[in-house]
Amino acid sequence: MKTPLNIDDTVMRELKREAARQGRTMSELVETALRRLLSSQRKWGRIPALPTFRSGGTLVDVADRDALYHAMEGR
Fold first, then answer.
1. CB neighbours (10 Å) of residue 65?
2. What distance in Å separates the CA atoms of residue 60 and residue 70, rounded to the nearest whole number?
3. Band of the pLDDT at 15, cuts 50, 70, 90?
4. Residue 49: per-residue pLDDT
5. Cα(1)–Cα(20) distance, rounded to whole angstroms?
6. 8 phi/psi in degrees, rounded to 5
7. Which residue, 38, 37, 12, is CA-closest to 27?
């Protein structure tokens, strides 16, 4: 499908250079870039759950300044 797009001149120059370097058309590069963008956005929706673990309980009450200093400094 032909679709008119407005592309910044600087981006267009880079696109032309990259297409020539790779021996591909600008359309191929744009389509590849769009496919990657769209597929990566779909993957963002599937965030795995964070792992959980048991720490064995707290060793010191962080609200108790003296107990915290004692644990950190070995007093």
1. 9
2. 9
3. very high
4. 87
5. 22
6. -55, 140
7. 12
Residue 75 tokens, joined: 């007093």
Tokens 């267009």, residue?
Answer: 12
Q: Which amino acid is at 58?
A: T
- DSSP letters, the chain, are --------HHHHHHHHHHHHHHT--HHHHHHHHHHHHHHHHHHHT-PPPPP-------SS-TT-HHHHHHHHHT-
pTM equals 0.53
* Of 71, 52, 53, 51, the residue nearest 61 (C-alpha): 71
Let me know: does 68 contact 59? Beta carbons within 8 Å.
Answer: no
Read off the pLDDT of residues 35-69 as tens digits, 9 standing for 90 and up.
998 887 666 667 788 898 888 777 888 899 998 88
